[in-house]
Design brief:
The structure holds two protein chains of two kinds. Chain A is mainly α. In chain A, 83% of the residues lie in helices and 0% in strands. The N and C termini of chain A lie far apart (46 Å). Chain B is built from three helices and no strands. Chain B is elongated and about 65 Å long. Classes of the chains: A mainly alpha, B mainly alpha.
Chain lengths: 89, 106
Amino acid sequence: MSKILIFSILFLSATIFICMFRAIKGPTAADRLIAVNVIGTKTIVLILIVSFLLHETYFVDVAIVYALISFLSSIVIAKVIENSGGKNI
Amino acid sequence: MKDIVVTMFLFGGLFFFMVGTLGIIRFPDVFTRAHSASKCDTLGAVLCLCSLIVLEGLNMVSLKFILILIFVWTANPTATHLIAKAEYTRQASLAKINGVKKHEDI
């Protein structure tokens, strides 16, 4: 079981690096924001799998706070994009 | 038996994460990328969290997992919808500044 969890951690890290490509390159600000949002979701799953591997249950609280802050930040940046008046940030 | 169920759910979630990442890289437009990212957010995360709940059993920690699952399932599609709406508003105001007629396609 532990080998499968370690494999899934490595796979998630590889997909995070592929998403980072779009977050750096993306032509508009909304592209970058979508990529960062997906990276946040993958990080939540990664923290939870690491909490299983290390038998540390307080990592679950860290994941809850990470989900809340990620949602709040993407709402605020979407509001900034909406009020930017047409120009690409 | 439990290991088989956990492995199936975990690999299903990883498959959806991989497909969503491929869509984010390969699709040509912002809105199609938002569509692909929404699949990645809901199905991938929910299947991975379900596998961890089955692995944990029923106790206080798995209740916190269910809390995270419900929050992710509601909040992430809302965030993707807001981003797509903001980008649509930006492109519409850009067309108004550059003088596109009302009956012309944007």
